[in-house]
Amino acid sequence: MKKLYILMVIITSLVITNSFAQQDSAKTDDEWKWHWGDEEDWGWNWSWDEDFDFGFSKSRPAISLNYGIANISRNGLNKEFVNPNLLELKLGYIKENSAWGKDDLINHRYRNVFILNESNKLAGKDAQGLEIESDMWKLGFERSSGYGYKLGENSGLIFYNGYTLNWSRIDFKYPQILTLLPDSEIDILNMYDETFRFGTSGVGGIRIKMIDNLMLDASYERSIVFQRHLFWKWAGSAIIESAAQGLLDKFIDEIFESSPYAGPVVSFVLKNALSYGIYELRQEKMNWPFNSEAPLSYDQFKFGLTFVF
User: Fold this and answer.
1) Do residues 171 and 196 lie in contact, with contact meaning Cβ atoms separated by under 8 Å?
2) Which of 35, 96, 103, 232 is most buried, judged by most C-beta within 10 A?
């Protein structure tokens, strides 16, 4: 959104500049000199860190390692899956500063790229009866942010919410008996099998900052894999979600203004409740509220370590 904002500002500036030039090209240079000392009178006190920060300035490199468990489902599908375990690696940047003028409140941001393997092999499980085995590789981008409390000079407790954009490749292994006869549910799963599919997810969790360079992480992530990517319907659904989160942010800002120390917990509860609700609605329609197929859904519980450099 900030990139779009900057682009709009640049385009508007160029249009206005061109309009003035056409209106009176005979004015002298002295007449057009800008009085930079009057900047405060205009209310234009630009701050690069606040107005043009895309998440990486004054940030620290970070590596996260996560292990977890997952559950696979799809609305209207009666097949049973072997519940997989997962391993995940994240490489990114963490930025922290004080929040709302309080030195003991933390504003936390984490931007990263990640790669994840989710497989029943990691769980050491084999299929029983008619269970379907799976092995998934996923690559994507994650953006998370939240607030927390300082517990000491280099320790803290952080509550966060985030989202990912990702691409998954899933390999299903069916019991032989399920391949002998035509099966509409197997036909649906074959649309995901051994091919890259686009997906998104909502994530919420808690980070415990033990020391300056080490964090413990516990999180829940609801991820969906699209049967096919319908860009305009997906974009419309994403805009609705972004607008809802934006309105909620305004409400949370008012809570911080009146009760700053309640803000981190209230923000955590409200933003993750909204994310969960939206992804619950997308279980039936992947591009809710627009007509679309049900996605393949993964509910994931993760535990890990984050090393900050």
Assistant:
1) no
2) 96
